[in-house]
Amino acid sequence: MLKITAKNNEKRWFMLKNESIILDLIKGIAPEAEVIEYRNQTTVKVLMKNIIEVLTMLKNNAECKFDMLLDVTSIDRTQERQCYEVVYNLYSMMNGNR
Known about the structure:
It contains 2 helices and 6 strands; from the N terminus they run ββαββαββ. The chain has a 6-stranded antiparallel β-sheet, covered by helices on one side. The chain is globular, with a radius of gyration of 13 Å.
């Protein structure tokens, strides 16, 4: 499963099923990315300035091929901080990754 969360002026989050190759590719673009393991899912925090390049790579790279945007939603975090998270749910028709 790949879940991308965009936070205003903060970091983006990625939850991955095929993590090893994808994490290496993301780290190549965003070396400061943080990796968090929780409930058999990997979450990666990346700086907001890298989101376009990371999403483009996830779409175009032969190892990833996340070619379908399934959903865009948001999470209201204004109680904690004055910001919203934007969540992108991606799917790879070629690899069957979600």
